[in-house]
Amino acid sequence: MATPHQSNPIWLLILFCCYYFILSEKVEVVEATRRNFFNPQSSDSTIVSSVYRTSYHFQPPHNWINDPNGPMYYKGIYHLFYQYNPKAAVWGNITWGHSVSTDMINWIPLDIALNPTKPFDIDGCWSGSATILPSLNKPVILYTGSNQEKHQAQNIAFPKNLSDPYLIEWIKPDEYNPVMSATGDINPAQFRDPTTGWMGSDGYWRVALGAEIGGVGMALLYKSKDFVRWERADKPLHSPRGSGMWECPDFYPVALEGKRGMETSLNSEDVKHVLKMSLGETHSDHYLLGRYDEEKDMFIQDNEEKEKNYRFWRRYDYGNFYASKSFFDAGKERRILWGWSNESDSKPDDIAKGWAGIQTIPRMVWLDENGKQLVQWPIKELESLRRKRVHFHDIELKAGGLLNIKGVKASQMDVDVEFELPSLEKAGPFDSLLALDPQVLCEKGNFSTQSGIGPFGLLVMTSLNKDELTAIYFKIFEAYDRHVVLMCSDQRRSSLRPELYLPVYGGFVDIDIEKERRISLRTLVDHSVVESFGGEGRTCMTARVYPAFLVTSKAYLHAFNNGSETIRILHLNAWNMAKPSINVAQDQFLI
Ligand SMILES: *[C@@H]1O[C@H](CO)[C@@H](O)[C@H](O)[C@H]1NC(C)=O
Ligand SMILES: *[C@@H]1O[C@H](CO)[C@@H](O)[C@H](O)[C@H]1NC(C)=O
Ligand SMILES: *[C@@H]1O[C@H](CO)[C@@H](O)[C@H](O)[C@H]1NC(C)=O
Ligand SMILES: *[C@@H]1O[C@H](CO)[C@@H](O)[C@H](O)[C@H]1NC(C)=O
Ligand SMILES: *[C@@H]1O[C@H](CO)[C@@H](O)[C@H](O)[C@H]1NC(C)=O
């Protein structure tokens, strides 16, 4: 992995700006460097092409990545660590890759921060979190190490040199590690992913981590006076008995009002707490809202009855998004969420591409006005990449209507549209048996012109003859007491390449459509990524797509309405997106 020279943050900034400028001029040139090659390991000669590589999502130059780890904002710099195999584009030999940024859009790659070098992490340095100890203004990392026996334990690491603005080197002191071991009833093969620490009013630090005891997943609680010696609390932070192993728990407060983020230790009448867990069995990130009862040292979820079965739990993202982690950005007083999106092609394709996995665009996260769900929105900084804009407003989309949106580079863009529904009368009946299965509802829809409201939405990554396309759309149903809004991201027609995984994603959008009569959709398209935010960020869906046409031709963008009721586009904005500098080695930087 490339190491930059040590330079001060001012230089960092100037370099960013220069490079930024050069790159914004180069957007169109990227296309010219495409190449394709045949994958010898695949029985079919699959096309694997660099056209699938993203331009403005976080990736290292090569190899496998998974979970975001230890994100933090420290002394003016954002740090992102990530699960990284420095040897190959498949999972294994896991280390902590490390990059720094001043805007979370442009990133400088650093040396690997944690390598498996000690008996307690020799089988891999797995996920964990960073905590900034306020009394010392010093960051610490807690991470999971897997040892020779493949037993998991939590370890601590400190920056070697606090004067180094990038915190390049980290030490793993032998005198403390491991700091939490799987004792008693804990399954040592399912004991991992410590959260950021929070301090209670008794002055003790707490962290939660994922564990399995007797086949049940839970967030165990550990306490410490000095952050170095930890003891397991009598009771878990939470264990609803509704699911198997919980990976990558995250626990943080959100303000009852407003979008302002909260420091992780904060607890008061004015906040709710979020407990997120990544469920191995569903490969998705679910969260519960509730309150943190400090006396009991437990998370008490709202709506206890309903929350016993994880199928009722809300999801951050109804698509390809896993092992997420949030942090409090003290610079801008907001909470930021990172998630990993894996490839949906095959392992031989990943090996042929030489890379696998991306981080989604960092999202700001806050509590919805209704207090019942979180809202997520791409960080404002992303808008600095917007270039040429195409704009439409007040357009009627009649039944079967299709609007071709010309003039935008549809494989690397940001599109934001607001639809208005003049009438809800034709909404079709809601099948309440599928109230827990929005994905099945989306699968049942077959795209053809139908009676009812919707499907209406966007067709992205569309080939000229439309034999390949990805549809992101809404459909409105009438339930006995209200209207239900369904959002789908349908990848079934996203690629003609054989044997690809082509899922349909679905989720409900919890808005009062009778009152609002309008719904927005923002979609970030970046080659193989289609990241969508419905209802102003109330329902999110990330998809990975690998259309064959992209190797030789350009992508198109359409708005469509296949319902029988006319829909209005109040406005639609689509921007070409510039390519920022993401993990480009410093020597290349200076060319
Ligand atoms: C892990 O590293 C070893 C040593 O370099 C290498 O032989 C092996 O292929 C790697 N495994 C994976 C899965 O990358
Ligand atoms: C610590 O980092 C600072 C700033 O980069 C550097 O000047 C100093 O030499 C480093 N100290 C050691 C012991 O490496
Ligand atoms: C990754 O991709 C595959 C499809 O290739 C999918 O089935 C799997 O659940 C994905 N997610 C994770 C977290 O591995
Ligand atoms: C798709 O839906 C339409 C209308 O609901 C129906 O007439 C048609 O048979 C369906 N097509 C398929 C392939 O299921
Ligand atoms: C809309 O319906 C038509 C006619 O049934 C169908 O050919 C087309 O694929 C549908 N559009 C979309 C976006 O699915």
- And the CATH topology of the largest domain? Tachylectin-2, Chain A
State the CATH architecture of the largest domain: 5 Propeller
Average of per-residue pLDDT values: 90
User: Helical content, roughly?
Assistant: under 10%
Overall domain count: 3
Name of the top-level CATH class of the largest domain: Mainly Beta
Backbone shape: globular
Query: N-to-C terminal Cα separation, in Å?
Result: 19 Å
Number of helices: 5
Strand content: 35-45%
The biggest sheet, with number of strands, parallel, antiparallel or mixed sense and barrel status, is:
7 strands, mixed
Structural class: mainly beta
Number of strands: 40
Keywords: Glycoprotein, Glycosidase, Hydrolase
Domain Glycosyl hydrolase family 32 C-terminal: 381-576
Protein name: Beta-fructofuranosidase, insoluble isoenzyme 4-like
InterPro entries: ConA-like_dom_sf, Fructan_Metab_Enzymes, Glyco_hydro_32, Glyco_hydro_32_AS, Glyco_hydro_32_C, Glyco_hydro_32_N, Glyco_hydro_beta-prop_sf
SSE blueprint and pairings:
Layout: H1 9-26, E1 36-38, E2 47-49, E3 63-74, E4 77-85, E5 95-101, E6 108-109, E7 124-133, E8 138-146, E9 152-159, E10 170-171, E11 180-181, E12 191-192, E13 198-199, E14 205-213, E15 216-224, E16 231-232, E17 246-255, E18 271-279, E19 284-293, E20 298-301, E21 314-315, E22 322-329, E23 334-341, H2 347-353, E24 355-356, E25 358-359, E26 363-367, E27 374-378, E28 386-397, E29 401-404, E30 412-420, E31 428-429, H3 438-444, E32 453-462, E33 470-478, E34 483-490, E35 504-509, H4 513-516, E36 518-526, E37 529-534, E38 539-544, E39 556-561, E40 567-577, H5 586-589
Bound molecules: 2-acetamido-2-deoxy-beta-D-glucopyranose (5 copies).
